[in-house]
Amino acid sequence: MALPSEDSLRFIVARMASILAAHGEAFDAPPLVLPNAEFFPDAISVSGDGLETLLARIAFHSPLPDDVPLTLGFVEAEDAGGKSCSSGACGPEGAALLPPVHETDETYLIPLDVSVARNPVRLTTAIARGVGGVLLAYTDTPLEDPSRDAEIAAVLSGFGVLLANGANLFMKGCSGVKVHRGTALTVEEVAVALALFVRRFDHAPSKAKKYLEPTQLEAFEEGLAWADQNEELLEKLASAPELLADGVFDFGKPKGMLSRLFGKKPKDDEVVVTVRKRTPEEERRLAEARALVEEALGGE
Fold first, then answer.
1. Whole-angstrom distance, CA of residue 149 vs CA of residue 46
2. Which candidate in 21, 129, 148, 245 could, as Cys together with 241 as Cys, close a disulfide (CB 3.0–4.6 Å)?
3. What is the average pLDDT score of the chain?
4. pTM given for the model
5. Confidence of residue 85 (pLDDT cuts 50, 70, 90)
6. Alpha carbons 116 and 94: distance in angstroms, whole number
7. Rounded distance, CA 231 to CA 214, Å?
């Protein structure tokens, strides 16, 4: 799987850096949110209370303050043409994504297409990108591309795995299998952002890999390899993100296959070697052996 274009890579790094430079204290130690019982102990329900619980759970894992008012608002795609099925896969092809957030005088409204409620992956992806949008709106962050910026903020909040799986989702509908894309960023772009996130905040990539679908996993592996070729960018992203915010920087040179195979392994794959302390009996035998060697050498 190919990496995103250089322009896309530059956009991802620059926007991540810009958000970190402006609000670094909010991203002190963001979690890597995974679709498991640790982060989502409640069963996902499409009831009103169930959806509010899911929204509250996702917001809880984000840097948003607890008192920020959030609301979900469901809308129906204008071009649905009456098509419907239990999976939600029979909606209009190429339908535009809804904006991640709409700010009113009373609340931050996250608009959701009604069809996303039929699929938990689409639902969590839509809410996660919405929470990313709320974070930027709440902090009055200048936007370049509202949807893509919201998704970058969502990745920085720890929701990269959720977004990656929603960025390329195979769904079976009445007319066969379709690929649904629930993000403005491509799956390759989300994967690169996720790779930068796990490296920047020292999360084990293996934890993310466990919950990524095959296409997403392949893209994430490419993203990790690219991130590891750009150690200087990672260092600046951690220590001086403001130096990357303008998008003017150099990328590391791609490594060949042998370098990637035999180069430095990722942190979570490294083998730690420890030296066992000798027992008193082993120390006694070693001392005796040394004495014998010294005696033999002294007698020459």
1. 28
2. 21
3. 85
4. 0.80
5. low
6. 15
7. 26
